[in-house]
Amino acid sequence: MTSNTLFTLSRLGYFALVLLLGGWFVGQGISGEYTLLFSLLWIVPLLLPAKGVFQGNPYTYAWASFVLCLYMLHGLTLLYVTTDAFAFALIEVLLIGVLLIAFPFYARIRGRELGLGLKKKTKE
């Protein structure tokens, strides 16, 4: 798989995740289940890597995977505890699962293309 394919897949998946979670949490805030402020604050960590993700910065893809883990925990918990939002939770978990595979692979492949790998220690 080329870095361009992974870049496109990652960018589209990230955009879909932002829309999915943004719509879900804002909807929960409007319905009164959560406060709107809490709902908006829940989206902020997901938006932190947005600039680097859309620019294709391999370093951003590497650390953004850790941010995605928070949302994976949310999706898995929701999948386990609720039947009302089962479809939403399943889509969230599957989408984040794809991103948790695509993000590190893109970072690795693109980083190698750019020569950003770790330097090997020389024997002295």
Care to describe what's here?
- It is a single chain.
- This protein is an all-alpha fold and 124 residues long.
- Helix 1 packs antiparallel against helix 2, helix 1 packs antiparallel against helix 5 and helix 4 (58-81) packs antiparallel against helix 5 (86-114).
- It has helices spanning 3-31, 36-47, 50-55, 58-81, 86-114.
- The mean pLDDT is 88.
Question: What is this structure's SSE topology?
Answer:
Blueprint lengths: L2 H29 L4 H12 L2 H6 L2 H24 L4 H29 L10
Which runs of at least 5 residues are low in confidence (pLDDT < 50)? none
Give the biggest beta sheet: none
Percentage of residues in DSSP E strands? under 5%
Structural class: mainly alpha
**Apparent shape:** elongated
Distance between the termini: 38 Å
The number of strands is: 0
Radius of gyration: 17 Å
Summary keywords:
124 residues, mainly alpha, 5 helices, elongated
Brief summary:
The protein is mainly α and 124 residues long. The protein contains five helices and no strands. The chain has helices spanning 3-31, 36-47, 50-55, 58-81, 86-114.
